[in-house]
Amino acid sequence: MDLSAKLAEKISNVVAEKGSTLVAKVLTREDRIAKIKQVIGGKTLPVVSVNISEHHYGPHIIDPAANTELTLILQQSGFKVVDGDSKLKPDVQISGEAFSAYGMQKGNLISCKSRVEVKVSEVATGKLLFVDRQTSVGVDIAEQTAAKTALENATDTLAERLLPKLAQ
Question: What is the CATH number of the domain that holds 151?
């Protein structure tokens, strides 16, 4: 019994001291946005429009998560984002497609996998500036929320690479 307690204490001390090196740090959305702002700080930011269509292979889900997430990150990073009803015209169009699908269920938890694909075009010339894609997974107790989370996760990672390329 004493030996087990001493071993447990040693393990606890090692985990407390070196825990950050044992598990990969997960960036929060706020961390990602702060990192993006640091990279694009002081650069000229174009006016952007976003149009990413989505499909979930399963029960119909409304409200495009990837489109909403990318628009939110663009706005929080300092970009002007416009839609078709705006009087201000975009310099850059981000368009693409996204899908999500049921993955598996373990107990009450449901996982979904997603893929987001985007292309960025210069509106004035139609020139394709770049393309990118990202897959991710989301877990929740509801399939629809897991699917949206998977799309948000993929979009967050994609935005971290995409937004610095938009800044000049």
Answer: 3.30.160.150
